[in-house]
Amino acid sequence: MLGFRSSGWRWHAALVLGSPASTSPSPIHPRVGPIVYLRRRSLNLTGDTGGGKRWCCKEPRETGVHGGEGRRLKSAAVRSPDAIEVEYADLNLKDFYGAAPHLGHVRIRQHVNPLSSSFSTPAEVPEWKSVFRDPTQPLMVDIGSGSGRFLIWLAKNCRERGNYLGLEIRQKLVERSQFWVKELQLENIHFMFANAMVSFETLVSAYPGPLILVSILCPDPYFKKRHHKRRVVQTSLVNSIAKNLSVGGQVFMQSDVFDVALDMRDQFDARSDVFEHVGAIDHSFLCDDQGWVLHNPMGIRTEREIHAELEGARIYRRIYQKHTQYLPCTNHI
Ligand SMILES: C[S@@+](CC[C@H](N)C(=O)[O-])C[C@H]1O[C@@H](n2cnc3c(N)ncnc32)[C@H](O)[C@@H]1O
Fold first, then answer.
1. What is the per-residue pLDDT across 207-253, written as a single tens digit (0 to 9) for each?
2. pTM of the predicted model as reported, rounded to 2 decimal places
3. In a domain, 271, yes or no
4. Rg of the chain (C-alpha set)
5. Is residue 170 a part of any domain in this protein?
6. Domain-embedded: residue 66
7. Which end of the chain is more exposed for a tag (fewer CB within 10 A), N or C?
8. Which atom of ligand 1 is nearest to the CA of 167?
9. How many domains does the chain have?
């Protein structure tokens, strides 16, 4: 199950399986509004009920004006880049711009077409030993990792918990992310220039350790109906996640575009033989009456999430868990 705790504890974003629910009361924070106190959460990789490894987020976060967690900025007039600098201040990434000024402001095209032939070649599987200090550790994959700050923050603050792999289709972003990884001397994170639609299966099936968490956070919306097939969450990706995720592993997805969130929800609901929404199995997750998870469980917001919330948008979240009694059904793959 997933739980948060702050104030005296540091925030945690970790996933626990099968441990008994014990939700603390939700006191009102005297300064900034309600804070949800849930249990620390950890991800049990073995399926035992005693708690396991945790995806933890060390930094304390305050609840902000929009009711979510995170170091919210209270004025809508605050610019996204400033808000991002504040939220990710402890990474000190600005310090590294001097060493590579061209990486400070990466100019990229707004969207690419993942179905074009230039993105159809699967990424080469890396020598895992050369990219992770210990490639047998549990793996979290972030699909569409964007700037990479979100995953770097997790990798830096949760070093002992496993490895982090970011898949991103825009090469310049990957180059900058990898530059930051090197400067921060992190040995548990790697970014790859890859079209997740064609490379996810190849990469994760070749990883030596267990896949325990997949995140798909604010994927590109491709609003036009004729472009929906460019959206990263397609049946083949869902089936590949279903196949490769460890039993008890989880999928965290969110979008500020309701139609995109619905689309992702429908795709994962269609594999109810494999996935169960956490709201149905763990009442310590706070969901609205439609089953959207109300809080980001990771303890840090993604850049798109920060931007969207500054604009007053709502984030729609779902978290799925692979059934503990899942029996592989190969005809889906
Ligand atoms: C809107 S951004 C969100 C980035 C980040 N997850 C966040 O929430 O801030 C979506 C990202 O997904 C990437 N992307 C889109 N399609 C992709 C694909 N097929 N494979 C890998 N990355 C993809 C885009 O290049 C972009 O960086």
1. 999 999 999 999 999 999 999 999 999 999 999 999 999 999 999 99
2. 0.80
3. yes
4. 19
5. yes
6. no
7. C
8. 21
9. 1
